[in-house]
Structure of hydroxymethylpyrimidine kinase:
Amino acid sequence: MNSTALSRPVVLCLSGHDPSGGAGLQADIEALLAQGCHAAPTCTALTVQDTVNVSDFRVLDREWVLAQANAVISDIPVSAVKLGMLGSVQMVDTVLELMQRLPGVPLVCDPVLRAGGGGALGKDDVGYAMRERLFPLSRIATPNLPEAQILAELPEGSADECAERLLPHIEWLLITGGHGDESQVHNRLYGRHGERHEFTCARLPGSYHGSGCTLASTLAGRLALGEQLVSAVRSALDYTWRTLRDAEQPGHGQYVPRRLPLDFCS
């Protein structure tokens, strides 16, 4: 058998496992495959959830997560890191330790604090720890507006108000829309030095399970491929919108993004 070196960039994903397959590590893997990247998935938490909501979760032991990720880092060059569900302050510490082995590697932080159905995926202090300790190491964070309000400690804050509170902690911030009733979804990208870009797209009917994971993983993949940040954000938003446009409803709850074409394995 002929061996061929891996030419696709590798993205280390630290995320939870969603048994419904809509979000979490499966979303990461599928989105990265679609970008032409190789996903290296490290499981941080196990969840009990379906397409309706999450009913329980268990964060894995710190030693297990370190062992998973360190095995990959010691073996494979990592081009980007994507964070999803962490679930505990101890897992924030774990990520900090791992990133010491990956200086200069772009980190995309998706601050998963709530499930799509509204259930909590960590205690309130997890958001504070992410903001204070992980954001300074991250190239970009991708909260939706409700998550940004939690992180900024502004329960009724606008995207602009949340960004003003959060940008001292991070270089770039993408606050995604879609949680109101507007006909256009407004996704706002803020830079620490005053840069601002707004990306709008048509609002799609229904609600979706795994859209945030899809966006953050795609963005990490685009950065791993060498795309510049603003362009990478635009590419990730465009791809994510298409996966939602083509989404399926496999269960009794939210739609699941179709991240891979039907003929992907044919």
